[in-house]
Amino acid sequence: MSNETAPNSSNGTTIPAQTNDSDLAATFATDDKPIPKEESSLLNKILNEKLNSLNEGIVEISKQQLDPASPLYSNQTFESLRLKQPLIDALYQMGFQQPSKIQEAALPLLLCEPPQDMIAQAQSGTGKTATFLLTMLNRLDPEKKFPQCICLAPTYELARQIGEVAKKMAKNMPEIQIRYAIKGENVSRGMPIAEQIVIGTPGKMLDWVVKFRLIDPSKIICFVLDEADIMISQQGYQDQSIRLHNQIIAAAPNCQCMLFSATFSEAVFNFANQMISDPVIITVRRQDQTLPNIKQYFVRCRDRSDKYRAISNLYCSLTIASSIIFCYTRSSATWLANQLRATGRDVALLHGDMAVMERAQAVEDFKNGKYKVMITTNVCARGLDIPQVALIVNYDPPVTFEEHPQPDYDTYLHRIGRTGRFGKPGIAVNLADSDITMSFVKSFETYFGRPIEPLDDRDMDQLDKIEKETQ
Ligand SMILES: Nc1ncnc2c1ncn2[C@@H]1O[C@H](COP(=O)(O)OP(=O)(O)OP(=O)(O)O)[C@@H](O)[C@H]1O
């Protein structure tokens, strides 16, 4: 969930209004002190070497796909999963050699008759998108020129990304067409939509189905909620997603509903379970939710200026592969981007206040490698699949506000999951510039049961040791 739209979060100011905690306020406040030049750190060394090893990612991936304990493992082939041949051909063309665990577990159930509803949880970057897209593509009738599958995602960027993957998978089935129901896409009243798959954000989709009646809900055979936990629980998405679901189920009671996410809190899971009928359920134990290929660290900073020094210091490492820096608010992201740009550093900026075209351009430039660093908010925490992202920095920790600031576990998991895609090695670094931020880091460590180790940029031995452990 983007804190940008979170009900209790600050929206554009640097310090959340709800908290009086001076430590936390300091964490989010801005700082414009000059960076000491002599602060060139050994941290660069470890990260440089670690990031250079990313080229070996492919070897590691195949190793992981052979390890039964890995979420990438399968002893099945795509041929054994009831998929149509043109889809199998497309998967091989995309470089997919064998299914991942979620694909192997879910696809045979999703493709059997009668269609089965599903709530599925699987770790970030392990192939959920392909799971639901293959189901839709396999099930729809390409000869029928009207929408048969609807997929909802929380952001413009994610909807587009899902569409791009769908197009690659449908490459050998040219009759299949995909349409986006997102900001900037316009329709004319009375001009029904002919594309078989419509992917979009909830508000726009609701307009097209209910207000403009351009999509006939009785003809929908597959309904997917990606990032389903926020789609059914968070203000801003919940009303529209549930209303759409109800409309479709009322008109097409046999429509197959699929809810996918890397995170489902117990309450949201129970709600999802009531919402759809007799679903097949796939979940992941909490201790397995964070992946071992993503090594987690924290850098203890003295104060705000030390934190800015750390990020400046990290910059050389950040630009070796691609990296994403998460800030708490739009204004703190903008501030950090401006600070770095003012010192000649090149970064992309993406947040929810930007116009759609600017957002699309920022993602494109980052994906293409024009920018190696993207500074953003939680708007990019979920779903974004950019395989070359090797490093995540939590400049500000993910927090929720319920009277007091609390660690936001789900967002932590989604943020660090922007690296380590499909088994690639990744690094997540938390910058902790206050006691409360440090306590959040400890909470993330305890909650997920995975170590978040200290990085001390002055301790050579320690850095060498960490480096060996991550190889
Ligand atoms: N069977 C496969 N073989 C090889 N690569 C795969 C396979 N399945 C998916 N991938 C690749 O893995 C990456 C991550 O997949 P995907 O985006 O579907 O993850 P996800 O589970 O939806 O993650 P998130 O929870 O972050 O949204 C993508 O780049 C995708 O192309």
Give a quick summary of the entry.
The chain is of the alpha/beta class. It has helices at residues 22-28, 42-52, 57-65, 85-93, 101-110, 128-139, 156-169, 202-211, 228-233, 238-251, 266-275, 304-318, 330-342, 356-367, 409-416, 435-448, 460-469, and strands at 118-121, 149-152, 178-181, 197-200, 222-226, 256-261, 280-282, 294-300, 322-326, 348-350, 373-376, 389-394, 399-402, 404-407, 426-432, 452-454.
Query: Would you tell me the structural class of the helices and strands?
Result: alpha/beta
Shape descriptor reads: globular
User: End-to-end distance, in Å?
Assistant: 32 Å
Instruction: Describe the main β-sheet briefly.
Output: 7 strands, parallel
Alpha carbon gyration radius: 22 Å
The name of the CATH architecture of the largest domain is: 3-Layer(aba) Sandwich
If helices are DSSP runs of H or I spanning 4 or more residues, what is the number of helices?
Answer: 17
- Let me know the CATH homologous superfamily of the largest domain: P-loop containing nucleotide triphosphate hydrolases
* Ligands, ions, cofactors: adenosine-5'-triphosphate
Can you give the mean pLDDT?
84
pLDDT < 50 stretches = 1-47, 50-61
How many independent structural domains? Answer: 2
Record the strand order, biggest sheet: 3-4-2-5-6-1-7
Give the oligomer, counting copies of the same chain as homo and different chains as hetero: single chain
**Portion in helices:** 25-40%
User: What proportion strand?
Assistant: 15-25%
Topology, number of strands: 16
CATH topology-level fold name of the largest domain:
Rossmann fold
